[in-house]
Specification:
193 residues; mainly alpha; globular
Length: 193
Amino acid sequence: MHGPASPGWLLVALCAATGAYCLLRMRSPVEEQRRAAGGEALMGFGMAVMAVPAAVFSPPAWAWPLYAGVFGVAAVRALWWARTSAHHLHHLVGAAAMVYMSVAMALAPGTHHHAHGGSGVPVVTGVLLLYFAGYVLVSGARLVPATAGPQGSGAPTGGGPAGGPTGWGDRPELAQACRLSMGLAMVAMLLTM
């Protein structure tokens, strides 16, 4: 997870900005959006901290089990809420990936170099890479605008919870862009495993 400094800082900035926007989304009047935004904020900030370049900060040995515990709890929470929303299954996979990376970092010699010795990509890492690469492609496709309206305006229609205007914190395309950026960050972090 700790590769070259410049891409590492870009990853930290991307994840922290995404986490901050997700915190703002937690003010939504729609309960399901608040619940999803809370899990996404945790993921964004957790990924930001995990992506800090090792030359700047190497977490102490006790930090990785703590990370695994926090994201283990997040995974159980996502599993519970998956009963009502399929999107929480994605949160479950994301939290499980964070647990996996935390355990791999805890077991890694030197705790900040490659988590897996030998050659090739471990099976779990490969499966997670395939999942998140597919998620990024699907999320990106969802951001492509639908065909233009009758006058070709392409402007979004619809509105907020009561049919009124949508606040910038409740815009589905912004939430989707955040999910896309976190998916890209997860791919980048898994590639460094």
